[in-house]
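Sample pair:
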Amino acid sequence: MEGIKNTDRRTTMSVQRKPVAFGDMRNWMKALKAAGEIREIDAEVDWNVELGTVTRMAQGPGTGPALLFKNIKDYNKNTTRCGQVFVGSIGSYRRVAMLLGLEPDTHPREIVKIGRTILEDKIPPRIVKDGPCKENIVTGKDINLYDFPVPHWNRVDGGRYVLTYGGVVTKDPTTGTMNIGIYRGMVSAKDRIPILMWRAQHIGHHVTAWQNGGSSEMPIAVAIGWEPSLAFTGGSPVPKGVCEYDVMGAIRGEPVDLVKCETVDLYVPATSEIVIEGYLQLDPKNWDMEGPFAEFTGYVAGDKSPKPTIRVTAITHRNNPILRGTVEGSLPGSYSENGICSSIMRASTAWNVLDRAGVPGVTDVWCPPVQTGINLLIRMKSSYRNQAKQAANAIWGSSAAHVRYKHITVVDDDIDIHDYAAVDWAIAQRVNAGEDDVIIMPSTFGAGLDPSTRKRDRNPALFGTGKWNRLLIDATMNLDYDPDPELGGARFPPKVWPEQTDIDATMKRWGEFGLKKPNGG
């Protein structure tokens, strides 16, 4: 397919991407195998804690391979309905670049720039009559979620979580627009899955609309195991009213083939590995207990409590299906798939928010993967005082800030925000807390899973979402300071880095000194 060159006026990049329609998860796995990005594990692994532990230990700081577990305890007999689990699909920037049709070595800075437009492009899906996900149709008394090797991912989890990176499909009852999101879901019975959701999320908007129409349950479907754009898009802040299937089509350069579900009026990718259909119970008296779970914060979160529950009405799946899953929670030295993807899409979204708000001079935006977009770094050319505060207010006032961007640090254009040493230096040398360089925005909406928030304020049933006290660190050179005549009118003294002419002269003699060239050259 012909390359697409991003020529958006908001960016200055020349990276070309060639959209790839893999067709299904199996072809994506073949692409990963050809690139040396997947490891197949033939040794028996226990679904109970061991599989999740192996996954977490292997993923590293975005450097580990994707893993296919092919021999799972209790699910390795000839009569097994499903015997494989696939994890880590988009757990590195190399693999994120591949799914977007970029060279694997593309720098995350360039992937963020691609991300600025990827959520705004649309190729509508097409409806097909049948697909591989219909090869097996299970209904009624035959429904049994325990037929699948659902891991008990972490010893601290409240149970076995079948929904970790599946695309949860719901729709607005008035407009018919579908939303595909990612929500955690635990098996509570062979045909029941309580999930964690928030009223401020798009699924929450749908719940409210169905309740306002007098419904006590809402149709829902989950597509597990498809092309990587499903998980990537489902976990990204796609604007309200935009169907994620349209965005997936734009990412892959071709429409997504959708097939209608058997028991609900929803559509799922025809080549999905597994589809779970049902109705989300909206009346609290029909909720099951769910939680806790090792969450994206890197802490156990979401206390055991009654949650909205899927009453499963059908399971369809391919022959010899592969269960797609993931471990959640980034920690130093071990970054989750969510952490890697959020670092790209949350940065891209924030940059677009700044652009739409008219904040000038922004040259780079980044969310380091270890904290999954909770901290946001902005690099800008300041042209007037308090420009950083304008940027922070624009971000915090947007819907994209619901569960992200708790802390914002703004630096000048001479600071590389992909180099934390540079950011740390700017905070140390350019921040004066007594000069309003540190600002707290109290009591805003935020992530209800944040362990730094008081437990009472994390109750979604009571408050609908969490509560955050947000922070801006303005690490730009303060333009409120008076120009100093002794510094040639500058507000800050010059840095101690040598002049370029001195550097050039020194480098000409570098070989005489027997030293390695700077920066690994």
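The first helix runs from residue 25 to 34.
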